[in-house]
Amino acid sequence: MLTCVSIVLASAAFAAGPRPGPQEAPPRNPPPVSAPEPERAPGPDAFTALDRNADGLLSREEAAADAALVLRFDQADRDDDGLLTAEEFAAMDDQPPLP
């Protein structure tokens, strides 16, 4: 009879599945969270990417590929010739954002 009770208890323990072990403690010093990279300033790489015909100037048509540039095109075009030079493009950083 003792053997039957032992078998029943062992079967019940087995059917219940493994017992959860102690939970692992979180690491004491989690890795630092890196700050998001700041927006890149308009630079030669951006200018070159937009200058599809490689003439060293950005037309309104070329600027249309960048919605933010479209909004600031007139403000950036300091000589009002309808084109942006690399210097005008780079100087947009110095201009306050449009309201």
Q: Tell me which CATH architecture of the domain at 44-94 applies here.
A: Orthogonal Bundle
**In the CATH hierarchy, what is the class of the domain at 44-94?**
Mainly Alpha
Q: Fraction of residues in helices?
A: 40-55%
Beta-strand portion reads: 5-15%
CATH fold assignment of the domain at 44-94: Recoverin, domain 1
Residue windows where pLDDT falls under 50 for at least 5 positions: 37-41
What is the overall shape?
A: elongated
Tell me the total number of β-strands: 2
**Helices and strands, in N-to-C order?**
HHEHHEH
Rg over CA atoms: 33 Å
Termini separation comes to 89 Å
Name the average pLDDT: 75
CATH homologous superfamily designation of the domain at 44-94: EF-hand
Q: What is the spatial order of strands in the main beta sheet?
A: 1-2
Q: What's the total helix number?
A: 5
**Major sheet details:** 2 strands, antiparallel
Structural class: mainly alpha
Pfam family, one: EF-hand_5
Organism: Marilutibacter maris
Keywords: Signal
Biased composition (Pro residues): 19-35
